[in-house]
What does this fold into?
Amino acid sequence: MATLYPAEIYSGCPSPGEREVFQRLKEGTNTANWIVLHSLDIANHVKQVSGEADFVVIVPSRGILCLEVKACRRLRRDGAGWFYGSEQTADPRGPFRQASDAMHSIRSRLIKRRPEFSNVLFWSAVVFPYLDFKMSSNEWHDWQVIDAEQFRRRPLSDSIEEVLKKAGMFLATCDTARWFKPGAVTLTAKQGSAIAQELRPSFELFETPKVRQNRWGEEIRKYTEEQFTALDAMHTNPRVLFSGPAGTGKTLVAIECARRAAAEGQRCLFLCFNRLLGRWLQDQLSPLAGAVTMSTFHSFLLTVAGAAPQTDGQGTHFWQEELPEKAIEALIQGEAPMQPFDIIIVDEAQDLLRGPYLDVLDLLLRGGLAAGRWRFFGDLEKQAIYASSVKDPLALLQQRAGPFPVFSFRVNCRNSPRIATLVHLLGGLSPEYSRVLRPDNGVEPNLRYYKTQAEQEEAFIEILESWYKDGISGSEIAILSPRADKVCLSARISREPWRNRLRPRADAAGGYISYTSIHAFKGLEAPAILVTDIEHLASDTPLDLFYVAITRALHRLSILVHESARSEVINALTRVKPCN
It folds into this structure.
Protein backbone atom coordinates (compact mmCIF):
# COMPACT_ATOMS: atom_id res chain seq x y z
CA MET A 1 0.00 0.00 0.00
CA ALA A 2 1.32 3.45 -0.92
CA THR A 3 2.03 6.19 1.59
CA LEU A 4 0.17 9.38 0.70
CA TYR A 5 1.00 12.90 1.83
CA PRO A 6 -1.35 14.21 3.02
CA ALA A 7 -2.95 11.01 4.28
CA GLU A 8 -6.44 12.33 3.46
CA ILE A 9 -7.41 14.52 0.56
CA TYR A 10 -8.38 18.09 1.35
CA SER A 11 -12.15 18.12 1.89
CA GLY A 12 -12.49 21.23 -0.25
CA CYS A 13 -10.72 19.75 -3.28
CA PRO A 14 -12.95 20.85 -6.20
CA SER A 15 -11.89 18.15 -8.64
CA PRO A 16 -13.86 14.86 -8.48
CA GLY A 17 -11.20 13.34 -10.71
CA GLU A 18 -8.41 14.19 -8.28
CA ARG A 19 -10.43 12.71 -5.45
CA GLU A 20 -10.93 9.49 -7.42
CA VAL A 21 -7.25 9.26 -8.37
CA PHE A 22 -6.31 9.85 -4.74
CA GLN A 23 -8.61 7.06 -3.56
CA ARG A 24 -7.33 4.59 -6.15
CA LEU A 25 -3.74 5.28 -5.19
CA LYS A 26 -4.63 4.95 -1.52
CA GLU A 27 -6.37 1.60 -1.99
CA GLY A 28 -4.05 0.25 -4.68
CA THR A 29 -2.24 -3.06 -4.41
CA ASN A 30 1.37 -3.89 -5.30
CA THR A 31 2.40 -0.41 -4.25
CA ALA A 32 4.63 -1.21 -1.25
CA ASN A 33 7.13 1.61 -0.57
CA TRP A 34 5.40 3.91 -3.05
CA ILE A 35 5.10 7.52 -1.92
CA VAL A 36 2.50 9.86 -3.38
CA LEU A 37 2.51 13.62 -2.92
CA HIS A 38 -0.81 15.24 -3.72
CA SER A 39 -1.10 18.86 -4.79
CA LEU A 40 2.61 19.72 -4.58
CA ASP A 41 3.18 23.45 -4.87
CA ILE A 42 6.12 24.52 -7.03
CA ALA A 43 7.63 27.81 -5.92
CA ASN A 44 10.32 27.89 -8.66
CA HIS A 45 8.40 26.92 -11.78
CA VAL A 46 10.29 26.88 -15.09
CA LYS A 47 7.56 28.79 -16.96
CA GLN A 48 5.49 30.59 -14.29
CA VAL A 49 5.94 32.51 -11.06
CA SER A 50 4.65 29.40 -9.29
CA GLY A 51 2.80 26.21 -10.15
CA GLU A 52 1.42 22.94 -8.87
CA ALA A 53 1.68 19.24 -9.61
CA ASP A 54 -1.56 17.33 -9.02
CA PHE A 55 0.30 14.13 -8.04
CA VAL A 56 3.95 13.22 -7.73
CA VAL A 57 4.26 9.42 -7.57
CA ILE A 58 7.59 8.03 -6.35
CA VAL A 59 7.96 4.38 -7.46
CA PRO A 60 11.01 2.46 -6.22
CA SER A 61 13.02 0.71 -8.98
CA ARG A 62 11.12 2.72 -11.59
CA GLY A 63 11.27 6.47 -11.09
CA ILE A 64 9.07 9.48 -10.43
CA LEU A 65 5.92 10.30 -12.37
CA CYS A 66 4.16 13.66 -12.29
CA LEU A 67 0.46 13.29 -13.02
CA GLU A 68 -1.79 16.02 -14.33
CA VAL A 69 -5.48 15.16 -13.82
CA LYS A 70 -8.04 16.63 -16.18
CA ALA A 71 -11.44 15.64 -14.80
CA CYS A 72 -13.45 17.40 -17.49
CA ARG A 73 -16.30 15.62 -19.27
CA ARG A 74 -15.78 17.59 -22.47
CA LEU A 75 -12.49 18.62 -24.11
CA ARG A 76 -11.80 20.78 -27.16
CA ARG A 77 -8.65 22.17 -28.75
CA ASP A 78 -8.40 24.71 -31.55
CA GLY A 79 -5.98 27.37 -32.67
CA ALA A 80 -6.49 29.33 -29.44
CA GLY A 81 -5.65 26.44 -27.15
CA TRP A 82 -7.33 23.86 -24.93
CA PHE A 83 -10.85 24.26 -23.53
CA TYR A 84 -11.92 22.09 -20.56
CA GLY A 85 -15.61 21.47 -19.98
CA SER A 86 -17.68 24.62 -20.43
CA GLU A 87 -14.76 27.00 -19.88
CA GLN A 88 -14.63 29.84 -22.38
CA THR A 89 -11.02 30.79 -21.72
CA ALA A 90 -8.37 28.76 -23.57
CA ASP A 91 -5.35 27.17 -21.92
CA PRO A 92 -2.54 27.83 -24.42
CA ARG A 93 -0.16 25.28 -22.89
CA GLY A 94 -2.43 22.26 -22.60
CA PRO A 95 -2.31 19.41 -20.06
CA PHE A 96 0.79 17.68 -21.43
CA ARG A 97 2.86 20.86 -21.30
CA GLN A 98 1.50 21.54 -17.82
CA ALA A 99 2.60 18.11 -16.65
CA SER A 100 5.98 18.37 -18.36
CA ASP A 101 6.74 21.85 -16.98
CA ALA A 102 5.79 20.74 -13.48
CA MET A 103 8.04 17.68 -13.80
CA HIS A 104 11.04 19.71 -15.05
CA SER A 105 10.55 22.30 -12.31
CA ILE A 106 10.52 19.64 -9.61
CA ARG A 107 13.52 17.77 -11.04
CA SER A 108 15.54 20.95 -11.49
CA ARG A 109 15.05 22.01 -7.87
CA LEU A 110 15.72 18.53 -6.54
CA ILE A 111 19.03 17.91 -8.32
CA LYS A 112 20.19 21.43 -7.52
CA ARG A 113 19.80 20.66 -3.83
CA ARG A 114 20.60 16.94 -4.02
CA PRO A 115 22.88 16.25 -7.04
CA GLU A 116 23.10 12.56 -6.13
CA PHE A 117 19.56 12.15 -7.47
CA SER A 118 20.40 13.44 -10.96
CA ASN A 119 20.18 9.95 -12.49
CA VAL A 120 16.66 9.27 -11.17
CA LEU A 121 14.08 8.81 -13.92
CA PHE A 122 11.51 11.64 -14.01
CA TRP A 123 8.55 11.67 -16.39
CA SER A 124 5.02 13.05 -16.73
CA ALA A 125 1.60 11.82 -17.80
CA VAL A 126 -1.99 13.05 -18.02
CA VAL A 127 -5.02 11.30 -16.56
CA PHE A 128 -8.42 11.78 -18.20
CA PRO A 129 -10.67 9.79 -15.81
CA TYR A 130 -13.89 10.64 -17.72
CA LEU A 131 -12.77 10.87 -21.38
CA ASP A 132 -11.57 8.32 -23.90
CA PHE A 133 -8.56 10.23 -25.24
CA LYS A 134 -7.30 8.57 -28.42
CA MET A 135 -5.70 11.60 -30.05
CA SER A 136 -2.10 11.38 -31.26
CA SER A 137 0.36 14.22 -31.70
CA ASN A 138 4.05 14.96 -31.87
CA GLU A 139 3.48 16.95 -28.69
CA TRP A 140 3.11 13.84 -26.52
CA HIS A 141 3.64 10.12 -26.53
CA ASP A 142 0.53 7.97 -26.70
CA TRP A 143 1.75 6.05 -23.66
CA GLN A 144 1.73 9.31 -21.63
CA VAL A 145 -2.08 9.16 -21.60
CA ILE A 146 -4.18 7.36 -18.98
CA ASP A 147 -7.71 7.85 -20.30
CA ALA A 148 -11.10 6.69 -19.00
CA GLU A 149 -10.96 3.32 -20.76
CA GLN A 150 -7.57 2.48 -19.22
CA PHE A 151 -8.45 4.14 -15.90
CA ARG A 152 -11.50 1.88 -15.50
CA ARG A 153 -10.04 -1.31 -17.01
CA ARG A 154 -6.84 -1.78 -15.02
CA PRO A 155 -5.33 -0.76 -11.65
CA LEU A 156 -3.94 2.75 -11.76
CA SER A 157 -0.66 1.47 -10.32
CA ASP A 158 -0.20 -0.77 -13.36
CA SER A 159 -0.73 2.18 -15.69
CA ILE A 160 1.80 4.29 -13.77
CA GLU A 161 4.42 1.54 -13.91
CA GLU A 162 3.75 1.11 -17.63
CA VAL A 163 4.35 4.83 -18.28
CA LEU A 164 7.63 4.78 -16.32
CA LYS A 165 8.75 1.58 -18.07
CA LYS A 166 8.16 3.08 -21.53
CA ALA A 167 9.75 6.37 -20.47
CA GLY A 168 12.86 4.41 -19.53
CA MET A 169 12.86 2.63 -22.88
CA PHE A 170 12.49 5.95 -24.69
CA LEU A 171 15.31 7.63 -22.74
CA ALA A 172 17.57 4.69 -23.49
CA THR A 173 17.36 5.64 -27.19
CA CYS A 174 17.99 9.36 -26.63
CA ASP A 175 21.56 10.54 -27.15
CA THR A 176 20.79 13.71 -25.18
CA ALA A 177 19.72 11.78 -22.07
CA ARG A 178 23.26 10.85 -21.06
CA TRP A 179 22.36 11.07 -17.37
CA PHE A 180 20.07 8.04 -17.75
CA LYS A 181 21.66 4.62 -17.15
CA PRO A 182 19.55 1.88 -18.80
CA GLY A 183 19.22 -1.26 -16.69
CA ALA A 184 20.45 0.39 -13.50
CA VAL A 185 18.26 0.58 -10.40
CA THR A 186 17.50 4.26 -10.51
CA LEU A 187 15.60 4.61 -7.26
CA THR A 188 15.64 2.70 -3.96
CA ALA A 189 12.93 2.87 -1.31
CA LYS A 190 15.31 4.76 0.97
CA GLN A 191 16.10 7.25 -1.77
CA GLY A 192 12.38 7.64 -2.45
CA SER A 193 11.77 8.61 1.17
CA ALA A 194 14.64 11.10 1.04
CA ILE A 195 13.25 12.67 -2.16
CA ALA A 196 9.76 12.94 -0.63
CA GLN A 197 11.24 14.65 2.42
CA GLU A 198 13.13 17.05 0.16
CA LEU A 199 10.09 17.87 -1.98
CA ARG A 200 7.60 18.12 0.89
CA PRO A 201 9.64 18.32 4.11
CA SER A 202 8.06 17.48 7.42
CA PHE A 203 8.80 20.09 10.04
CA GLU A 204 7.56 21.46 13.30
CA LEU A 205 8.21 25.07 14.26
CA PHE A 206 7.58 26.77 17.56
CA GLU A 207 7.34 30.38 18.48
CA THR A 208 10.70 31.24 20.04
CA PRO A 209 10.70 31.77 23.82
CA LYS A 210 11.80 35.37 23.35
CA VAL A 211 9.00 36.19 20.90
CA ARG A 212 6.48 34.30 23.02
CA GLN A 213 7.57 36.02 26.24
CA ASN A 214 7.37 39.42 24.56
CA ARG A 215 3.89 38.62 23.25
CA TRP A 216 2.68 37.31 26.59
CA GLY A 217 4.27 40.27 28.35
CA GLU A 218 2.48 42.70 26.07
CA GLU A 219 -0.78 40.81 26.51
CA ILE A 220 -0.60 40.86 30.30
CA ARG A 221 0.55 44.47 30.31
CA LYS A 222 -2.40 45.39 28.12
CA TYR A 223 -4.91 43.82 30.48
CA THR A 224 -3.15 45.08 33.59
CA GLU A 225 -3.22 48.64 32.31
CA GLU A 226 -6.99 48.47 32.62
CA GLN A 227 -6.36 48.29 36.37
CA PHE A 228 -4.43 51.57 36.29
CA THR A 229 -7.75 53.36 36.48
CA ALA A 230 -7.65 52.46 40.17
CA LEU A 231 -4.72 54.85 40.62
CA ASP A 232 -6.65 57.61 38.86
CA ALA A 233 -9.69 57.00 41.03
CA MET A 234 -7.66 57.08 44.25
CA HIS A 235 -5.24 59.87 43.29
CA THR A 236 -6.69 62.47 45.66
CA ASN A 237 -6.57 60.08 48.61
CA PRO A 238 -3.19 60.24 50.37
CA ARG A 239 -3.52 56.80 51.94
CA VAL A 240 -5.05 53.80 50.15
CA LEU A 241 -5.08 50.07 50.64
CA PHE A 242 -5.43 48.22 47.33
CA SER A 243 -6.67 44.75 48.10
CA GLY A 244 -7.40 41.81 45.85
CA PRO A 245 -6.70 38.13 45.22
CA ALA A 246 -3.73 36.82 43.29
CA GLY A 247 -3.66 37.53 39.58
CA THR A 248 -5.40 40.91 39.70
CA GLY A 249 -2.31 42.90 38.75
CA LYS A 250 -1.48 44.47 42.11
CA THR A 251 2.28 44.32 41.66
CA LEU A 252 2.23 45.93 38.21
CA VAL A 253 -0.15 48.60 39.46
CA ALA A 254 2.25 49.23 42.35
CA ILE A 255 5.10 49.66 39.84
CA GLU A 256 2.98 52.15 37.89
CA CYS A 257 2.28 53.97 41.13
CA ALA A 258 6.04 54.29 41.73
CA ARG A 259 6.55 55.65 38.20
CA ARG A 260 3.91 58.29 38.73
CA ALA A 261 5.38 59.26 42.09
CA ALA A 262 8.83 59.64 40.50
CA ALA A 263 7.34 61.77 37.70
CA GLU A 264 5.84 64.05 40.35
CA GLY A 265 9.25 64.48 41.96
CA GLN A 266 8.45 62.52 45.13
CA ARG A 267 11.06 60.48 47.00
CA CYS A 268 9.57 57.03 47.00
CA LEU A 269 10.33 53.95 49.10
CA PHE A 270 9.11 50.71 47.51
CA LEU A 271 9.14 47.64 49.76
CA CYS A 272 8.14 44.01 49.42
CA PHE A 273 8.55 40.87 51.52
CA ASN A 274 10.02 38.12 49.30
CA ARG A 275 13.61 38.16 48.11
CA LEU A 276 12.88 36.66 44.67
CA LEU A 277 10.16 39.22 44.05
CA GLY A 278 12.54 41.89 45.32
CA ARG A 279 15.13 40.96 42.71
CA TRP A 280 12.55 41.17 39.94
CA LEU A 281 11.27 44.51 41.21
CA GLN A 282 14.83 45.87 41.41
CA ASP A 283 15.18 45.16 37.70
CA GLN A 284 11.79 46.65 36.83
CA LEU A 285 12.40 49.83 38.83
CA SER A 286 16.07 50.29 37.94
CA PRO A 287 15.31 53.16 35.50
CA LEU A 288 13.83 55.06 38.47
CA ALA A 289 16.76 54.40 40.82
CA GLY A 290 17.37 58.09 41.47
CA ALA A 291 13.83 58.69 42.70
CA VAL A 292 12.68 55.27 43.91
CA THR A 293 14.43 53.24 46.59
CA MET A 294 13.45 49.60 46.16
CA SER A 295 14.24 46.87 48.68
CA THR A 296 12.87 43.91 50.50
CA PHE A 297 11.63 45.01 53.89
CA HIS A 298 14.14 43.11 56.00
CA SER A 299 17.10 44.05 53.80
CA PHE A 300 16.13 47.66 54.25
CA LEU A 301 15.88 47.20 58.01
CA LEU A 302 19.40 45.76 58.04
CA THR A 303 20.62 48.88 56.25
CA VAL A 304 18.77 51.22 58.60
CA ALA A 305 19.95 49.38 61.71
CA GLY A 306 23.52 49.02 60.42
CA ALA A 307 23.30 45.31 61.16
CA ALA A 308 25.23 42.58 59.38
CA PRO A 309 23.26 40.32 57.00
CA GLN A 310 21.96 37.26 58.79
CA THR A 311 21.90 33.66 57.65
CA ASP A 312 18.73 31.83 56.68
CA GLY A 313 18.97 29.95 59.96
CA GLN A 314 18.34 33.13 61.97
CA GLY A 315 15.25 32.72 64.13
CA THR A 316 11.98 34.49 63.41
CA HIS A 317 12.32 36.44 66.69
CA PHE A 318 15.26 38.31 65.22
CA TRP A 319 13.41 39.30 62.06
CA GLN A 320 10.08 40.08 63.71
CA GLU A 321 11.23 41.70 66.94
CA GLU A 322 14.97 42.39 67.34
CA LEU A 323 15.70 43.84 63.90
CA PRO A 324 12.68 46.21 63.86
CA GLU A 325 13.66 47.42 67.36
CA LYS A 326 17.23 48.10 66.22
CA ALA A 327 15.97 50.00 63.17
CA ILE A 328 13.56 52.07 65.28
CA GLU A 329 16.35 52.91 67.71
CA ALA A 330 18.66 53.97 64.89
CA LEU A 331 15.98 56.20 63.36
CA ILE A 332 15.00 57.85 66.65
CA GLN A 333 18.57 58.48 67.77
CA GLY A 334 19.62 59.74 64.35
CA GLU A 335 22.14 56.98 63.81
CA ALA A 336 20.59 56.34 60.42
CA PRO A 337 21.05 59.58 58.39
CA MET A 338 17.89 59.14 56.37
CA GLN A 339 15.39 61.78 55.30
CA PRO A 340 11.73 60.73 55.51
CA PHE A 341 10.25 59.56 52.25
CA ASP A 342 7.42 61.45 50.52
CA ILE A 343 5.54 58.24 49.75
CA ILE A 344 5.86 54.59 50.70
CA ILE A 345 4.60 51.83 48.44
CA VAL A 346 4.35 48.33 49.89
CA ASP A 347 3.70 45.21 47.84
CA GLU A 348 2.75 41.98 49.64
CA ALA A 349 1.36 44.18 52.40
CA GLN A 350 -0.43 41.24 54.03
CA ASP A 351 2.98 39.94 55.19
CA LEU A 352 4.09 43.26 56.68
CA LEU A 353 1.05 44.26 58.74
CA ARG A 354 2.65 43.70 62.15
CA GLY A 355 3.04 46.17 64.99
CA PRO A 356 6.87 46.47 64.95
CA TYR A 357 6.97 46.69 61.15
CA LEU A 358 4.35 49.44 61.08
CA ASP A 359 6.34 51.32 63.72
CA VAL A 360 9.35 51.39 61.38
CA LEU A 361 7.25 52.54 58.41
CA ASP A 362 5.73 55.25 60.54
CA LEU A 363 9.19 56.71 61.20
CA LEU A 364 10.30 56.40 57.56
CA LEU A 365 7.33 58.31 56.10
CA ARG A 366 6.99 62.07 56.08
CA GLY A 367 3.92 62.74 58.22
CA GLY A 368 3.84 59.15 59.45
CA LEU A 369 1.25 56.52 58.59
CA ALA A 370 -1.61 58.65 59.91
CA ALA A 371 -0.83 61.84 57.96
CA GLY A 372 1.64 60.80 55.26
CA ARG A 373 1.17 59.43 51.77
CA TRP A 374 1.25 55.65 51.28
CA ARG A 375 -0.05 52.96 48.98
CA PHE A 376 -0.31 49.39 50.30
CA PHE A 377 -1.03 46.50 47.92
CA GLY A 378 -1.98 43.13 49.34
CA ASP A 379 -4.16 40.05 49.40
CA LEU A 380 -5.74 39.97 52.82
CA GLU A 381 -7.93 37.03 51.84
CA LYS A 382 -5.61 34.20 50.83
CA GLN A 383 -1.90 35.06 50.63
CA ALA A 384 -0.96 35.70 54.25
CA ILE A 385 0.94 32.40 54.35
CA TYR A 386 3.53 33.38 56.95
CA ALA A 387 2.68 32.63 60.58
CA SER A 388 1.40 35.69 62.36
CA SER A 389 0.00 36.45 65.77
CA VAL A 390 -2.03 39.32 64.32
CA LYS A 391 -5.63 38.17 64.14
CA ASP A 392 -6.96 41.17 62.22
CA PRO A 393 -4.18 42.94 60.29
CA LEU A 394 -6.62 45.34 58.62
CA ALA A 395 -7.88 46.51 62.02
CA LEU A 396 -4.29 46.97 63.15
CA LEU A 397 -3.50 49.18 60.16
CA GLN A 398 -6.65 51.23 60.77
CA GLN A 399 -5.64 51.66 64.39
CA ARG A 400 -2.21 52.97 63.38
CA ALA A 401 -3.14 55.01 60.30
CA GLY A 402 -6.70 56.11 60.96
CA PRO A 403 -9.45 55.84 58.34
CA PHE A 404 -8.46 55.19 54.73
CA PRO A 405 -10.26 53.87 51.64
CA VAL A 406 -9.88 50.27 50.47
CA PHE A 407 -9.91 49.74 46.72
CA SER A 408 -10.88 46.19 45.82
CA PHE A 409 -9.47 44.39 42.77
CA ARG A 410 -11.58 41.44 41.54
CA VAL A 411 -10.64 41.28 37.84
CA ASN A 412 -8.06 38.64 36.92
CA CYS A 413 -5.55 39.83 34.33
CA ARG A 414 -2.89 37.11 34.81
CA ASN A 415 -4.35 33.62 34.50
CA SER A 416 -6.11 31.93 31.64
CA PRO A 417 -9.86 31.39 32.21
CA ARG A 418 -9.42 27.68 32.92
CA ILE A 419 -6.74 28.29 35.52
CA ALA A 420 -8.85 31.04 37.08
CA THR A 421 -11.75 28.59 37.40
CA LEU A 422 -9.49 26.08 39.14
CA VAL A 423 -8.35 28.82 41.53
CA HIS A 424 -11.97 29.38 42.50
CA LEU A 425 -12.87 25.71 42.83
CA LEU A 426 -9.72 24.09 44.12
CA GLY A 427 -7.87 27.07 45.57
CA GLY A 428 -10.79 28.09 47.75
CA LEU A 429 -11.23 31.60 46.32
CA SER A 430 -14.67 32.88 47.27
CA PRO A 431 -16.16 34.99 45.89
CA GLU A 432 -14.54 34.20 42.58
CA TYR A 433 -13.05 36.72 40.17
CA SER A 434 -15.62 39.11 38.76
CA ARG A 435 -14.00 38.83 35.31
CA VAL A 436 -11.07 37.13 33.60
CA LEU A 437 -9.55 39.36 30.94
CA ARG A 438 -7.20 37.00 29.16
CA PRO A 439 -8.59 34.86 26.31
CA ASP A 440 -8.97 31.11 26.62
CA ASN A 441 -5.90 29.26 25.29
CA GLY A 442 -7.76 25.92 25.21
CA VAL A 443 -5.30 24.22 27.60
CA GLU A 444 -6.77 22.54 30.67
CA PRO A 445 -4.84 22.48 33.95
CA ASN A 446 -3.48 18.99 34.52
CA LEU A 447 -4.02 17.18 37.84
CA ARG A 448 -2.04 13.95 38.35
CA TYR A 449 -2.16 11.59 41.35
CA TYR A 450 0.72 9.48 42.64
CA LYS A 451 1.03 6.76 45.27
CA THR A 452 4.80 6.54 45.57
CA GLN A 453 7.68 8.93 45.08
CA ALA A 454 8.73 6.86 42.07
CA GLU A 455 5.31 7.47 40.49
CA GLN A 456 5.57 11.17 41.24
CA GLU A 457 9.00 11.33 39.60
CA GLU A 458 7.69 9.50 36.53
CA ALA A 459 4.75 11.90 36.17
CA PHE A 460 7.09 14.85 36.78
CA ILE A 461 9.32 13.82 33.85
CA GLU A 462 6.39 13.04 31.56
CA ILE A 463 4.97 16.54 32.11
CA LEU A 464 8.31 18.25 31.42
CA GLU A 465 8.84 16.14 28.30
CA SER A 466 5.41 17.12 26.97
CA TRP A 467 6.10 20.80 27.63
CA TYR A 468 9.45 20.65 25.88
CA LYS A 469 7.76 18.88 22.97
CA ASP A 470 5.29 21.78 22.78
CA GLY A 471 8.18 24.23 22.51
CA ILE A 472 8.18 25.54 26.08
CA SER A 473 11.72 26.34 27.16
CA GLY A 474 13.31 25.66 30.52
CA SER A 475 13.43 29.35 31.46
CA GLU A 476 9.63 29.51 31.09
CA ILE A 477 9.03 26.74 33.64
CA ALA A 478 8.93 27.08 37.42
CA ILE A 479 8.50 24.12 39.75
CA LEU A 480 6.96 24.91 43.12
CA SER A 481 6.70 22.81 46.25
CA PRO A 482 5.48 23.37 49.82
CA ARG A 483 8.83 21.87 50.83
CA ALA A 484 12.20 23.60 51.04
CA ASP A 485 14.58 23.38 48.09
CA LYS A 486 16.80 20.69 49.59
CA VAL A 487 13.99 18.21 50.30
CA CYS A 488 11.50 18.82 47.47
CA LEU A 489 10.99 16.42 44.56
CA SER A 490 13.05 18.52 42.14
CA ALA A 491 16.17 18.14 44.29
CA ARG A 492 15.82 14.34 44.19
CA ILE A 493 15.50 13.92 40.41
CA SER A 494 18.37 11.73 39.22
CA ARG A 495 17.38 10.87 35.64
CA GLU A 496 19.26 12.63 32.88
CA PRO A 497 18.91 14.95 31.10
CA TRP A 498 16.42 16.37 33.61
CA ARG A 499 18.78 16.32 36.56
CA ASN A 500 21.14 18.60 34.66
CA ARG A 501 18.32 20.91 33.54
CA LEU A 502 17.05 21.70 37.05
CA ARG A 503 18.42 24.45 39.24
CA PRO A 504 17.27 26.20 42.44
CA ARG A 505 15.53 29.44 41.49
CA ALA A 506 18.35 31.62 42.77
CA ASP A 507 20.84 29.87 40.43
CA ALA A 508 18.58 29.16 37.42
CA ALA A 509 19.99 31.43 34.75
CA GLY A 510 20.67 30.63 31.11
CA GLY A 511 17.63 28.52 30.29
CA TYR A 512 17.56 26.15 33.26
CA ILE A 513 14.28 24.97 34.78
CA SER A 514 13.95 26.65 38.17
CA TYR A 515 12.50 25.20 41.36
CA THR A 516 11.78 26.74 44.71
CA SER A 517 9.30 26.76 47.57
CA ILE A 518 5.85 28.22 47.18
CA HIS A 519 6.69 30.68 49.97
CA ALA A 520 9.71 32.02 48.09
CA PHE A 521 7.88 32.36 44.75
CA LYS A 522 4.96 34.37 46.11
CA GLY A 523 4.47 37.55 44.13
CA LEU A 524 6.05 36.11 40.97
CA GLU A 525 4.62 34.30 37.95
CA ALA A 526 5.76 32.01 35.14
CA PRO A 527 4.33 30.81 31.82
CA ALA A 528 4.33 27.18 33.00
CA ILE A 529 3.99 26.07 36.64
CA LEU A 530 4.44 22.52 37.92
CA VAL A 531 3.34 22.06 41.54
CA THR A 532 4.78 19.02 43.33
CA ASP A 533 4.63 17.30 46.73
CA ILE A 534 0.99 18.16 47.47
CA GLU A 535 -0.08 15.71 50.20
CA HIS A 536 -3.15 17.31 51.77
CA LEU A 537 -5.47 20.31 51.35
CA ALA A 538 -7.94 19.96 54.21
CA SER A 539 -6.72 22.69 56.57
CA ASP A 540 -6.40 26.40 55.85
CA THR A 541 -2.59 26.60 55.77
CA PRO A 542 -1.93 24.01 53.01
CA LEU A 543 -4.97 25.27 51.10
CA ASP A 544 -3.62 28.83 51.15
CA LEU A 545 -0.20 27.61 50.02
CA PHE A 546 -1.83 25.67 47.22
CA TYR A 547 -3.80 28.76 46.20
CA VAL A 548 -0.60 30.80 46.02
CA ALA A 549 1.07 28.12 43.90
CA ILE A 550 -1.62 27.66 41.25
CA THR A 551 -2.22 31.40 40.81
CA ARG A 552 1.40 31.80 39.60
CA ALA A 553 0.67 30.10 36.26
CA LEU A 554 0.13 32.21 33.14
CA HIS A 555 -0.54 29.50 30.55
CA ARG A 556 0.28 25.95 31.69
CA LEU A 557 -0.44 24.39 35.05
CA SER A 558 0.22 20.83 36.22
CA ILE A 559 -0.22 19.60 39.78
CA LEU A 560 1.08 16.39 41.36
CA VAL A 561 -1.10 15.30 44.28
CA HIS A 562 -0.68 12.31 46.55
CA GLU A 563 -3.41 9.69 46.28
CA SER A 564 -4.30 10.22 49.94
CA ALA A 565 -5.53 13.72 49.09
CA ARG A 566 -7.80 12.61 46.23
CA SER A 567 -10.95 12.79 48.37
CA GLU A 568 -10.00 16.30 49.52
CA VAL A 569 -9.58 17.40 45.90
CA ILE A 570 -12.93 15.87 44.90
CA ASN A 571 -14.66 17.59 47.84
CA ALA A 572 -13.10 20.92 46.89
CA LEU A 573 -14.13 20.57 43.25
CA THR A 574 -17.71 19.53 43.95
CA ARG A 575 -18.75 21.66 46.87
CA VAL A 576 -20.50 24.97 46.15
CA LYS A 577 -18.63 27.95 47.50
CA PRO A 578 -20.78 30.45 49.39
CA CYS A 579 -20.52 34.05 48.30
CA ASN A 580 -19.48 36.63 50.87
The domain at 417-574 is CATH 3.40.50.300 (Rossmann fold). Residues 12 and 238 are 65 Å apart (CA to CA). The radius of gyration is 36 Å. The first helix runs from residue 16 to 27.
